[in-house]
Amino acid sequence: MAVTVKASLxxxxxxxxVTAGENKIITDEPIDKGGQxxxxxxxxxxxxxxxxxxxxxxxxxxxxxxxxxENINVEVELENFxxxxxxxxxxxxSFEGILDDEQLKRLHTIADAxxxxxxxxxxxxxxxxxx
Length: 131
Description:
It holds the Pfam family OsmC. InterPro entries: KH_dom-like_a/b, OsmC/Ohr_fam, OsmC/Ohrsf. This is OsmC family protein. The strands form two sheets. Strands 1-2-3 form a three-stranded antiparallel sheet, with no helix packed on it. It has a two-stranded antiparallel sheet with strand order 4-5. It has two domains: about 1-40, no CATH class; about 40-120, K homology (KH) domain (GMP Synthetase, Chain A, domain 3, 2-Layer Sandwich), CATH 3.30.300.20. It has helices spanning about 40-65, 100-110, 115-120, and strands at about 5-10, 15-20, 25, 70-80, 85-95. It is α+β, with helices and mostly antiparallel strands. The protein contains three helices and five strands, in the order βββαββαα. The radius of gyration is 18 Å and the shape is elongated.
């Protein structure tokens, strides 16, 4: 499944409108980086992708199993280490509801099966062209 997004940045420093089909978000940089902090920065968007995909994947599985879980909370911290070309995603998942150890073990496997998690743990290639 291919996904296409378009980012458009004018002369207002770092204020970027990103569209995907009919949906739009705003990204920006923090004030200390010269932006206006009017939207999530690109690193936050990357972490958001993992957090939201994990939550949705878990919800789909929980609904299929008919488990009584009110809320799924996923917190992702992304730390980038440019000098070593390493990034670390720390993902903390909690549930509002009662789950036993076996269910939690299964949900860990399901969380790792979310599409964004799979992409981030596979080889990634970026092909760039100027037009």
